[in-house]
Write a structure and sequence with these properties.
mainly alpha; DNA polymerase, domain 1; three-stranded antiparallel beta sheet; 8 strands; 47% helix
Length: 400
């Protein structure tokens, strides 16, 4: 009998695995970080000794490969790209990218590996502009993975600039501004009113698509004004949320009103259909079952087109929430907590240019004796109190 913890491929950012060898049976479980893996491994070993653990009770996590997502991405962009461009992207994938990364799990590919791959292509004689197209193709596949909530960040981000590649597009964040958000919500009210509450919740919380689809009425505290994100829904399955943690998301007064109206509509529909009780889920199809991700994405794209707005990904509604909160002066730490990011660095790296800066006004603060007299920055007792947080309920730029 043995339970061991190690990485299949060593290196920072690579996942940790638990390997179990018990009574002739072997099993491996991908966990994530080392600390979690060690804690879970100790628990499994204890349960094995007491006979309480069944090896077949916990399935191995299915790895989503780069190749699988690249095919999905090619299929999705077929209607938005010229036939010649689509064919070129396909050829680049088949000839250059898939032989290197095709069988790899999309979440296991690191920024360092991608950078090394691009440098090797340049050394082989490919021009920097050609390698920039390789980068754009890979970025498209990783953005697809972000949209499906498989990964949190695009590992190609920043590589174009570091390698001085021409033609690359580092920016993968494409949020709506306040005016565009207003236009989208107004169009939604008239074009697809049954989905207005769903999209309003997305824009007021920054919740991921799967988290919205899995939201239940019991997760909402209308009196205190918050949502508990406890699960996610994708491809017919409810699972734990990203990072395996429940988080609390503050909600605005306007969103409370919208959700209360949604609850009233659900009760009326329940009575009309003769059901004994309304569905547990907040957002459902007419028969009370969950909405599938691809179905709501299609509604989203049709609404954007009806509103006369550019085509963006659903995940960009999450970016819209974050960028608008930060542009209104909200703390990056608070936005991190709302979004459920695992680190403040991810929040700052992704949305840093939306954080307001005073520029020269900030530089002049060191010359102001009223601010600096008697202040010792090494002692927290002398620090100025931080400005109060801007509660999302105070945002008045977009009406429900």
């Amino acid at each position: 009998m043995g339970v061991k913890v190690r990485q299949k491929k060593q290196g920072k950012g690579n996942p940790w695995w638990i390997f179990i060898n018990h009574e002739g049976q072997r099993k491996s479980i991908k966990v994530g970080d080392k600390r979690t893996a060690e804690r879970k491994a100790a628990k499994i070993e204890k349960m094995l000794k007491s006979g309480q653990y069944q090896l077949n009770a916990e399935p191995e996590e299915k790895t989503v490969t780069f190749k699988a997502l690249s095919r999905e991405w090619l299929s999705e962009i077929k209607i938005t790209r010229k036939a010649s461009t689509h064919e070129r992207y396909n050829q680049i994938l088949d000839s250059h990218i898939l032989p290197k990364f095709g069988k790899r799990g999309i979440a296991d590919i690191t920024k360092g590996e991608i950078k090394t791959f691009f440098i090797k292509k340049i050394e082989e004689g490919f021009s920097r502009s050609s390698v920039a197209i390789f980068r754009d193709v890979m970025s498209g596949v990783f953005n697809n993975a972000i949209d499906q909530e498989i990964i949190e960040a695009n590992p190609t981000l920043g590589i174009t600039k570091k390698l001085s590649l021409a033609g690359g597009k580092d920016q993968h964040v494409d949020p709506l501004d306040f005016s565009e958000t207003q236009t989208f919500l107004e169009t939604c009210k008239s074009f697809c009113p049954e989905h207005h509450a769903f999209f309003f919740t997305a824009l007021r919380t920054g919740m991921r698509l799967g988290e919205l689809l899995a939201l239940q009425w019991g997760d909402i505290d209308f009196n205190s004004g918050y949502i508990l994100v406890r699960r996610t829904y994708k491809r017919g399955q409810f699972t734990e949320p990203k990072n395996k943690k429940t988080r609390k998301v503050d909600i605005s007064e306007a969103l409370v009103e919208v959700l209360e109206n949604q609850a009233t509509l659900e009760k009326k529909e329940t009575l009309r259909r003769g059901w004994t009780e309304p569905p547990e889920l907040v957002f459902t199809v007419k028969d009370g079952n969950p909405i599938e991700q691809n179905d709501i994405r299609r509604v989203f794209k049709r609404t954007l087109k009806k509103a006369g707005l550019r085509e963006i990904r659903f995940h960009d509604l999450r970016h819209t929430y974050a960028s608008q909160m930060l542009s209104l002066g909200e703390s990056p730490v608070y936005v991190k907590e709302q979004l459920g990011h695992h680190s403040i660095q991810l929040t700052v790296d992704t949305y840093g240019h939306w954080i307001p800066t005073e520029k020269r006004c900030g530089a002049n603060k060191l010359d102001d004796p009223e601010l600096t007299t008697g202040v010792n920055p090494r002692h927290s007792s002398n620090r100025q109190e931080s400005a109060p947080k801007t509660h999302p309920g105070n945002i008045k730029a977009v009406t429900p």
